[in-house]
Amino acid sequence: MTLQIENLTVYYRTLRGDVRALEDTTFQVADHEIMGLAGESGCGKTTLGHSLIILKPPMKYIKGHVALDEQELPIHDMKRMNPFRFKEISLIPQYAMNAMNPTRKIGKMTAELLGSRGVNFDAIRTELMRRLDLVNLPDSVLDMYPIELSGGMKQRMVMVLSTLLNPSLLIADEITSALDVSTQKAVAEMLVEFRNREFVNSMIVVTHDMSILYQIADSIMIMYAGQLAEKASTDVIIHSPRHPYTKLLISSLPEVGVRYTETKLQGIPGKTPLLLDPPVGCRFRDRCPISFEKCMEVPPFMEVEQDHYVACWREF
Amino acid sequence: MLKLDNVSKVYRIGTFGGKELHAVSNVSFDVQDGEVISLIGESGSGKSTIGKMILRLVSLSSGKIELDGVNISVAKGRALKEYYRYVQGVFQDPFSSYNPIFKADRVFDSIREEFYPQLDNQAWYHRVGSSLHAVGLNPEHVLNKFPHQLSGGQLQRFLIARALLLDIKFLVADEIISMLDASTRIDVLNLLAELKERGLSILFITHDLSLAYYISERAVILYKGCIAEMGVTEKVYENPMHPYTRMLMASVPRLDRKWEDVNIELKGQSSEVAKGCVYYDRCPLAAKDQECVKRRPPLLEVTPDHLVACWKL
């Protein structure tokens, strides 16, 4: 078990009260697992990703435990997390395009970054070259400024940087959403390659694009309004989901081969609740076609079949 | 009917404008009444520039655009305003189309001032109401609100309603659903389909191939400002002939099948336009000393209503 999360709850502190962005989250990520984390905007997927690596204000730790490789992660303590960041747990941020210092050449920036973590750049240089080659970047990028690279090249450069110290867990936050389809495919496949070559042990790939996850993820976890809805292997989520939100979400995705003249797709009526004052019980209740009285209580995230977790009263 | 005839756009770049960037080169296609045509391309393909040229937000370097036989690419003053009565656009980011310190319905007021100064209040509110109903919004729920009180999907539909206040014939929809959530984007897409049934022509600009397939009758695939392939949507999708289109189709992430192993050439993205085929650097078919490098391939009809620009066919 690489990652074990128990009852993790994180709020955002605002002037009008706490925004309850992540509520009682319990799940595991296994060794060598690529877990996709999907949901609409505001469902808490980025909050979850960031709270594992840098839980800074306005984020507020409420409760819960996180263990990485059987070792407790002090995620609520900015200082004590430092030895873990980059070495044990690493992040490819959402706007990786702008993640590099524009005033430094990439090689120099890399050396400074490694230096700040107490790693000697020269010792790791050959490995860096090998990995640049793997993602199809010429060695000369180290003598370039970030502005000289295209969006896809920057994305690949940041990927190499984030995984340089072979972290145990990598969080990739919406890394393919700003890319063109062809570059998107190449970057997504490189993520899998990085896992296969054991540069990283396991991954959480945060995205809103389910079709990308279907291509690369081993398992998919769906979130809705700060709560976990469903987690299962990729095929199960796509082909036989059990939570009503997952079902509706998947049936609303347009695909090549679907025309409105033949099959008219339906959206999900209603909108996501505000998390400043979320509804009690299941937060999908108001938009759910099969809700009943029991939904006034929060459904537990339970294993209904092997490795298939659902949070819906209708399924128990 | 809107017709683009050999339209090009050249931007001058570099410190003193010494270099040229061919954003769009010799693009011709037409959009029939009541037709949805998708303009598909990756970033830098010139798809948005074409949309902006149709909306006259960007001038043409050469060629012309005709609406029902009238050349509008040189229209000025009155004629241009008259043109905007029929052609309107909606853009990608609904949040930045509004001024956050004013109420959202302010976008309607500018239409009233410019185009309907003679209407009295009641007639105007009736018009706004029916236009909001047409996009599936309840006026009572959405009028008199600030932009932050409305969702992205609502704001985007608000902008479509604004365009419908005029009796438009043609709508340029530039990536209008890429910023919306999965559960709401399909509603906006269905709305476009409904408007089409009522006779509106739509230019649907997108990078998402599955959305384009869902809604459009014809598709135009752009690469570096040139049309690579165009034709009836089914033909382009089921039988892609240009190597670029084939590569695109193979890279689309789908839910019904996994990616095949196709080689994606990531290198060779030089931005200068050579004399030959624009796809030459990345093309797996092109060999050296071929026509590909010497001359730009013309757009030829391969089967009825399916045009491809490639020497290798």
List the helices and strands and how they pair.
The complex is a heterodimer of chains A (316) and B (313).
Chain A: E1 3-14, E2 17-29, E3 34-38, H1 45-51, E4 59-68, E5 71-72, H2 78-81, E6 89-92, H3 106-116, H4 121-134, H5 151-162, E7 169-173, H6 181-196, E8 202-207, H7 210-216, E9 219-224, E10 227-233, H8 234-239, H9 244-251, E11 302-305, E12 308-310
Parallel strand pairs in A: 3-8, 3-9, 6-7, 7-8
Antiparallel strand pairs in A: 1-2, 1-4, 4-5, 9-10, 10-12, 11-12
Helix pairs in contact in A: 5-6
Chain B: E1 2-13, E2 19-31, E3 36-40, H1 47-54, E4 62-67, E5 70-71, H2 77-86, E6 87-90, H3 106-115, H4 121-134, H5 139-142, H6 152-165, E7 170-174, H7 182-197, E8 201-206, H8 209-215, E9 218-223, E10 226-232, H9 233-238, H10 243-251, H11 291-294, E11 300-303, E12 306-308
Parallel strand pairs in B: 3-8, 3-9, 6-7, 7-8
Antiparallel strand pairs in B: 1-2, 1-4, 4-5, 9-10, 10-12, 11-12
How does this structure look, described?
- The complex is a heterodimer of chains A (316) and B (313).
- By secondary structure, chain A is an alpha/beta fold.
- Helices cover 27% and strands 24% of the residues of chain A.
- Chain A is built from nine helices and twelve strands.
- Chain A has helices at residues 45-51, 78-81, 106-116, 121-134, 151-162, 181-196, 210-216, 234-239, 244-251, and strands spanning 3-14, 17-29, 34-38, 59-68, 71-72, 89-92, 169-173, 202-207, 219-224, 227-233, 302-305, 308-310.
- An eight-stranded mixed sheet of chain A has the order 6-7-8-3-9-10-12-11, with helices on both faces. In chain A, strands 2-1-4-5 form a four-stranded antiparallel sheet, with helices on one face.
- In chain A, a hairpin with a 2-residue loop joins strand 9 (219-224) and strand 10 (227-233).
- The radius of gyration of chain A is 20 Å and the shape is globular.
- Chain A starts with a strand and ends in a 6-residue tail after the last strand.
- With 313 residues, chain B is of the alpha/beta class.
- Helix content of chain B is 33%, strand content 23%.
- Chain B has eleven helices and twelve strands.
- Chain B has helices at 47-54, 77-86, 106-115, 121-134, 139-142, 152-165, 182-197, 209-215, 233-238, 243-251, 291-294; strands at 2-13, 19-31, 36-40, 62-67, 70-71, 87-90, 170-174, 201-206, 218-223, 226-232, 300-303, 306-308.
- In chain B, the strands form two sheets. An eight-stranded mixed sheet of chain B has the order 6-7-8-3-9-10-12-11, with helices on both faces. In chain B, strands 2-1-4-5 form a four-stranded antiparallel sheet, with helices on one face.
- In chain B, helix 4 (121-134) crosses helix 6.
- The model of chain B has no long low-confidence stretch (mean pLDDT 87).
- Chain A binds chain B through residues 40-41, 136, 150-152, 180-186, 188-189, 208-212, 214-215, 238, 248-250, 252-260, 264-268, 271-272, and chain B through 42-43, 151, 181-187, 189-190, 193, 207, 209-211, 213-215, 237, 247-249, 251-256, 258-259, 264, 266-267, 269.
